[in-house]
Write a structure and sequence with these properties.
With about 60 residues, the protein is of the alpha/beta class. It has a single domain, classed as NAD(P)-binding Rossmann-like Domain (Rossmann fold, 3-Layer(aba) Sandwich). About 50% of the residues lie in helices and about 15% in strands. The chain has a three-stranded parallel beta sheet, sandwiched between helices. Strand 2, helix 2 (about 30-40) and strand 3 (about 45) form a beta-alpha-beta unit.
């Protein structure tokens, strides 16, 4: 799954996806700090743009 924007609500979506058993969680955000935090909260991949996220979702 892809989560676009990993601020307050988005980071909770990352945690929820991980808890639900998602195996591919792609967090998309232009802010580097938020992408780093998304990995700590359970994202498997992080991307700067939604377009680049599609590469991870097609696998």
């Amino acid at each position: 799954m892809a989560i676009v924007g990993v601020g307050g609500v988005g980071i909770n979506a990352v945690q929820g996806a991980r808890s639900a058993g998602a195996t591919h969680i792609v967090a998309v955000d232009p802010v580097g700090f938020k992408r780093e935090q998304a990995l700590l909260f359970g994202a498997t991949h992080v991307c700067l743009t939604a377009r680049s996220a599609t590469l991870h979702l097609r696998r």
